[in-house]
Amino acid sequence: MATIRAAQDAPRGEERVELSAVRDDAAAAERRLIRKIDIAVGIPVFILFLLSYLDRSSLGNALTAGLTEIDGFPPNGANVATSVFFVTYVVFETPSAMFFQLIGVRRAISAITVAWGITTLCTGFVTSYAGLLAVRLVLGACESGFFPIFAIYLTFWYTRSELGLRTSYLFVAAAVSGAFGGLLAAAILNIPASTGRPSWAWLYFIEGGITVVAGVAAHFVLADDYESAWFLNEHERQLMRDRDARSEYQSRAGAPAHDASSREVDQKHSPSYNWQEARLAFKDPKTWISATAQFGADSCLFAFSTFLPSIIRTFDPSYSNVVVQLLTVPVYAFASMSYVATAVFTDRRGHRWAVMALSSIIIIVGFSILLATDTRSFGPRYFATFLTSMIYTIVGLNVSWLNMNNALSIKRSTASGIQLSMGNAGGILAGQIFRSTDAPAYVRGYATCLGLVGYSMTAYLVMAAVLASWNAARRVELERRVPEQRSPRQLSSERTTRHSNATPSPSTSLDAETPASLRLRRRWHWQLAIGTGVAFGEPLSFRYAL
């Protein structure tokens, strides 16, 4: 008998081994595919994003190198020049993001990059303050669509679970651009003035030229999508199609076939649905909690990245321009490493809210040291700049946190657009935080950053509490085992059980509505449909990431 059973079980065991081997091969093939995409897409995107932040924030390096000596430069000229960039950036962000739909992603990215590269290069020819404001306005308009287009572009290649870490690399690029910009500025500022233009002008000439070359190269390196990608073979394209199908299935999991508000539909075939899904983002409170937190954090980030050389110069006015630029490099390097570490940790372990709250506390300590110490105390104040550089961490993690807590693609992109627009609007405020008239103490600037980061930290804690309460409420609803969430076989069995019992208990009565469950449904705006419960577009089985 034992021999017969062993013989019967042997084929099953072999099938399990073969199935396991097939799964391992598929997983290995997908890992190779992701590595190839990281190289062919991720690295070019990283470089272009680095150049974007390098060109916009080079104003801070130029200010310490003599830009303030151009004709008509007022006492608050640096603040206004910083703010005007974000005026056109915010105004043109949405129209520019739609640009790629007309000419394709590859051409749009290349055209935008070349346009802002030429504008950066032209900044080197500026001779008056009015000219500086003009090129800053144009630069803001040129760069405005860059991040939204790239945010959409990455979704063509990566699944929802992979996007968090890849999006974080963009903010790492922002921090790396500060370190690279400091090194580049230190080298360029040694160019003698006998060349006919001041050293700060050469900063713009070289950075703008690099960007133009990168923009032209992007036209040939990047692909519009995986179907036209030069670096993928047909087997890899099929694997991408399978990944897309799997991702779409997961996003529709549990969504009723007739409920347009709870499933993804092809944009080309259902444009009206897109607006319905987009409206969910405007109704969802987590969109606005996250967006207002982003405003506070981005305001400090833009101010910090632009005025860090000016802040460091106040530690010792005798420092040369080259020394000031070199002192910014370790700060930005620390910001890059700390952000990578926190992004990897939160991707593996979660607890984003805790990491963001802890980072906010570290930033607050840094600004408090800058407020409390004497302006001539180099050691403590320079150490404080390392603490405040953690601002990159909370800005980047907040973006990925909101994205992963929206199940539907159109709603996710709409919520992200609201968040990024409010964050970029903080750039207008950022230009007014560190006024030259407040130097060297910058009491008003440090106090403003303290308040903004304090608000952002509060918003993160509120967001975590809201998401935790939603998860708890969803568990309660699922534990009730509502009929809509059960299979036909389960329903048939439970109906038989109910009819066989004369007095069913409340726990087994599936038709009874308790006051508590009704309050929960009204409180969280649930719309229970056949097959799912939907809260702001997320299926009832969806769990919010903390």
TrEMBL record:
Main localization (coarse): membrane
Membrane topology label: Multi-pass membrane protein
InterPro entries: MFS, MFS_dom, MFS_trans_sf
Subcellular location: Membrane
Transmembrane segments: 37-54, 80-100, 112-131, 137-157, 169-189, 201-222, 288-312, 324-346, 353-371, 383-402, 414-433, 445-470
Keywords, comma-separated and alphabetical: Membrane, Transmembrane, Transmembrane helix, Transport
Biased composition (Polar residues): 488-511
Domain Major facilitator superfamily (MFS) profile: 41-477
GO cellular component, one term: membrane
Protein name per UniProt: Major facilitator superfamily (MFS) profile domain-containing protein
Species: Tilletia horrida
